[in-house]
Amino acid sequence: MAQGSVRNARALAMTVVFAIALDGLLAAAFVWCVPVVVASSQEKSSLLGEIARDYTAAGPRVGGRCVKVTVSRIASGEAEDVLARGWDRASDGDPPTVWAPAASSWLALLREHRSARHADDVLPAVSPSSLMQSPLVVAMPEPMGRALGWPSRDIGWSELLALARDPGGWERLGHPEWGAFKLGKTNPTISTSGLHALIGSYVAAVGRPSVIDADLSDPKVQEFVRGVESSVVHYGDSVSTFLRNLLKADRRSEELRYVSAIAMEEKQVRDYNKGNPDSGPVATELPPKTRLVAFHPRDGTLMADHPYAVLNAPWVDSMQREAADAFLAYLLTPPVQAGPRRARRPRDLVRERSPRERAVRRAASTGRVDPHAHAGLLGRPPQARALAHRDRHVIGDGRNVARRRHEAGAREARG
Question: Do residues 290 and 257 touch, judged by C-beta distance below 8 A?
Answer without folding.
Answer: no
